[in-house]
Amino acid sequence: MKFFIDTADLAQIKEANDLGILDGVTTNPSLMAKVGIKGEAAVINHYKTIAELVDGDVSAEVVSTEFKDIVEEGKKLHAIHPNIVVKVPMIKDGIKALKWFSDNGIKTNCTLCFSAGQAIMAAKAGANYISPFIGRIDDSNWDGLELIAQIAEIYSIQGFETEILAASIRSPLHIVKCAEAGADVVTSPLESIMGLLKHPLTDIGLAKFLADAKSWA
Ligand code: E4P
Predict the structure, then answer these.
(1) CATH topology of domain 2-216
(2) 28: Cβ below 6 Å to ligand 1?
(3) Ligand 1 atom nearest 170 alpha carbon
(4) Mean pLDDT split into 10-residue runs, the chain, 217 residues
(5) What sign does the dihedral 4-6-119-146 (CA atoms) show?
(6) CA atoms within 13 A on the CB side of 20
(7) Which end of the chain, N or C, is surrounded by fewer C-beta atoms within 10 Å?
(8) Alpha-carbon gap, residue 149 to 178, rounded angstroms
(9) Positions marked active-site
(10) Considering only CA atoms, which residue is closest to atom 9 of ligand 1?
(11) Closest ligand 1 atom to the C-alpha of 59?
(12) Which of 5, 6, 184 to mutate to test the pocket of ligand 1 (most atoms within 8 A of CB)?
């Protein structure tokens, strides 16, 4: 399973990248706004900085909703850096654009997926990644992890090559459960990635080992 970080914050991307286990980055317009990026030139420059920093796929989301505009915007994003993956919303014109990008060799991530039907449409359109938002599904009293398992089963039965990119992660446990459910990629905030490292017995055990090691001196 691949590990992506879900942020546009350069310090957090660097911290995760320094672990040596980072496979990519996902961003969205809200995450870009959160770090104060404003204006087309700044947006493009920020995507370039991220793409140069990480050796892996970097999702950059279009904000157009009409087929022709999505294609034009996606081509511009694609031209920024070879690591850029064009992130396209799960809407009718988005599906048409995903097919166009697929036919023209441009990598895509289909975002805002909340059902197996949508995941089937994205796979049929040739999306490289489908992003089910499991945290937002959980927030609505549905089971996001069940959706990951359902899509994994469908893709396996049907032989679809689209990778399942579990998104909207809220906790380290979400990451573990996504791994169990068959996600190909999990994109998480830094806090959830770092949370995977934590166990109180590790801390207690290490403190004891270090204390006992002092007796050697
Ligand atoms: C990733 O591609 C999504 O944009 C992101 O995971 C959404 O997460 P949120 O539901 O925490 O905003």
Answers:
(1) TIM Barrel (3.20.20)
(2) yes
(3) 11
(4) 98 98 97 94 97 98 98 98 98 98 98 98 98 98 98 98 98 98 98 97 98 91
(5) positive
(6) 0
(7) C
(8) 8
(9) 87
(10) 168
(11) 2
(12) 6
